[in-house]
Amino acid sequence: MALRIGAVHTLERVAHDSPDAHWPVMEFFCDFLHERATWEDPAAPPALEAHAELQAVLDVLGRRARMHEFGKDLRLDLNRLDLRGANLVGAHLERCALNGAHLEGAALGACHLEYAACQQACFDGAWMTRASLLGTNLRQASLRGTRVARTIFNGANLEDAELTGVDLREARGLTAAQLARARTDARTQMPEIFDTEPGAR
Q1: How far, in Å, CA of 103 to CA of 126, rounded?
Q2: Does the structure show a pLDDT above 70 at 5?
Q3: Global confidence as pTM
Q4: Is pLDDT at 198 greater than 80 in this prediction?
Q5: Are 106 and 87 in contact (CB under 8 A)?
Q6: Residue 201: pLDDT band by 50, 70, 90 thresholds?
Q7: Pair 57, 78: CB distance under 8 Å
Q8: Overall average pLDDT of the 93-112 stretch
Q9: Which residue among 9, 33, 156, 170 has the highest number of C-beta atoms inside a 10 angstrom radius?
Q10: Spatial separation of the C-alpha atoms in residues 103 and 37, rounded to whole Å
Q11: C-alpha–C-alpha distance, residues 72 and 128, integer Å
């Protein structure tokens, strides 16, 4: 286990120091996650419990040298992964692809998910306080029981997103039009103040 985690950190240093190696290493890490954590059986234990090195890979992806990606149309492929219970606090996952991923119970505080593709992703029970969902596509995503105090929702697509029972009172940047497209119920607590425009305030 220690050897595998050490190898992850060695590759991180290579990617940091070499602009040419940076993205191939990031793609290798994404492939590594897909080999060991593709979502298959909801009754199975979370993949991160069985493979501790997966959290090390997520740590690297979340703090990668993004300056090597400037001006390039690149997107981390994290689609349909079992990321239940992952620690992604403060991670930079802007524009990543998380379609159909499972992040139940994940720690996503202050996570950067700006313009990420999260269609049909499951965030049930996740902690997303202060996360940025600016322009994020959350179509048909589930956020039941998710904590979203001071989470930024400006411009997020909430079409058919599951927000039943979610406390949105301290959420930021939500408009009435956004929530009209989401699934809410009598237990959903609406924002104290609605934005009038979808842009940042």
Answers
A1: 7
A2: yes
A3: 0.92
A4: no
A5: yes
A6: very low
A7: no
A8: 98
A9: 156
A10: 12
A11: 28
How many Cα atoms occupy the beta-carbon half-sphere of 139 within 13 Å? 7
Q: How far is CA 77 from the centre of its chain?
A: 11
Say if CB 29 and CB 57 are below 8 A apart.
yes
Q: Say how far residue 182 (Cα) sits from the centre of its chain.
A: 19
* Cβ pair 136, 112 in contact under 8 A: no
Residue among 190, 157, 160, 162 at smallest CA distance from 176 = 190
Distance of alpha carbon 89 from alpha carbon 132, whole angstroms: 11
Give yes or no for residue 179 having a pLDDT over 80: yes
